[in-house]
Amino acid sequence: MSFVQHKKITVFDIVNYTLLAIISVSCLFPFVYVLSLSLTDRAVYIPYEFHLIPEKLSLAAYSYILSSDSFLNALNSTLFITIVGSILNLVFTFTMAYGLTEKRLPHRKWIYGIVVFSLVFSAGLIPSFFLVKELGLMNSYWALILPSLTNAWSLIVVKSFMDSLPVEVIESAKIDGCTDLGVFGRIILPLSKPALAAFFLFFAVAHWNTYFNALMFLTDSKKWTLQVLVKSLVLDNRASTSGMEASIGDSAPPSETVRSAAIILAILPILFIYPFLQKHFAKGVMVGSVKG
C-alpha cells in the first residue's frame, strides 16, 4: 500500500505554469534570435529579414570578432577588472564585516552606523567623478575597482551571516591560542563558503557588466570594456573607430552578424560560470536571513 500523496493539479496551477512558460520563452527568444543571427552565413543573409533558424550556418562573424585587436583588448580589460575587482571585493567585504562583528572594535556602533547611512544616502555621480579625477585614476582600470571595493548592502548581509555563526567555535579557537587572523582564516572563511561563492558571483557579474563607469572614466578606446565595445558596435556603429576596420572588405561578414556575435561573446562567460556556482548561490542568497 502506497502512502505517497499526489497533489491535485488545479486550474490555477495550469494557468500559472502556462504564464510562466510564456514569460520564460519570451525572455529566451531575443537570445535565440541574436545567436541565430550571429551564425547566419553571408551568402544567405538578408537585412531586416527574420529567421529564427539560419538557412546556412557560418562562424565567420565569430572569427572576424576574435581576430580583431579591439575585441581582444576589450576582453583583456574586462577579465582584469572582473578577476582583480571581484577578489578585492571579497577581501575588503569579508574582512571589514568580520571586524564589525568584534565587540572589542573601538567605535564599532559608529562605524556600522556610517555603513547603514551610506546605504540610504550616496554622494552621487558628480562627487564620484571628481574623486576619481583628483586621485589621478582617470583612464585607469583602477577607477573601476578602487571606488567600489565594497558596498553597504554586502557588508550588512555578510556581517549578519557572521553573527549567526556558532560563537562557541570561535571562542574555543581563541582559548586554544588562535589569533584574530587565525580565527578569520581557519574558522570564519571555511564556514563562509556559500557566502563567498554567492558574493563572488554578485561582484563578478557587476564588474563584467560595468558600462557607465567605464564609459565615463576610460577615455582610451584601447582600454574599453566589452560592454562599451558592444555598445559602440550596436548603437553607435563605430566599428571603424574601434580598430575593427582591418578586415573590412568584400569578404567581411555583415555588420549585423558581427554585432550579434559580439553580444553573444560578451554574455557567454557568465552563462558558463553560473551553473558551477548555482548550488552555492542558492545557499548564499539566504545568507544572514535567519537569526537564531
TrEMBL record:
Q: Which InterPro entries match?
A: MetI-like, MetI-like_sf
ABC transmembrane type-1 domain ranges (all copies): 75-276
Q: Does the keyword Transmembrane helix apply?
A: yes
Q: Tell where it localizes.
A: Cell membrane
Q: Name one Pfam family in it.
A: BPD_transp_1
Top-rank taxon of the source lineage equals: Bacteria
Topological category with respect to the lipid bilayer: Multi-pass membrane protein
What keywords are annotated for this sequence in UniProt? Answer: Cell membrane, Membrane, Transmembrane, Transmembrane helix, Transport
Which segments does the entry list as coiled coil? none
Q: Can you tell me where the transmembrane regions are?
A: 12-35, 79-98, 110-132, 196-218, 258-277
Family per record:
Belongs to the binding-protein-dependent transport system permease family.
Protein's recorded name: Carbohydrate ABC transporter permease
